[in-house]
Amino acid sequence: MKNKSLYIAPLQRSAGSIVVTMGIMQLLRSQVARIAFFRPVIESSETIDSDIELILTHYALDISYDDCFGYTLDEAEKLVAEGQFDLVLETLVEQFTDLAHSYDFVLVQGLSVTSFSSSLDFNLNLEVAKNFGAP
Predict the structure, then answer these.
(1) Hey, CA dihedral for 41, 130, 3, 92, is it positive or negative?
(2) CATH number of the domain encompassing residue 32
(3) Predicted local confidence at residue 2, as pLDDT
């Protein structure tokens, strides 16, 4: 397998990205020994992210929940509103790079369209994927 990562980003509401993620994860499990799952931004730290929990549980991945995400939506929005978009990207790239060094493959599920606000727009998925070097 040439690529060591893949970035999944929905283009519209209710696009079913978890179904796509699970299908790709199923394919990966038959070809790759150690897989990491990463979401750059999750809705909240007060509740368990259902996509992360489903993937970790269903595929019994050897990765902690806390290593599966970068920021909460509130944290990312605050930093972007303060003009620190580059810091957000830098931190996410650092986390992704750590995972890429520790695992054979990193499957990334980007923000859903419903998560976007005025300060955190659709370009975040594009910029993160580009900076991760993930197709």
Answers:
(1) negative
(2) 3.40.50.300
(3) 72
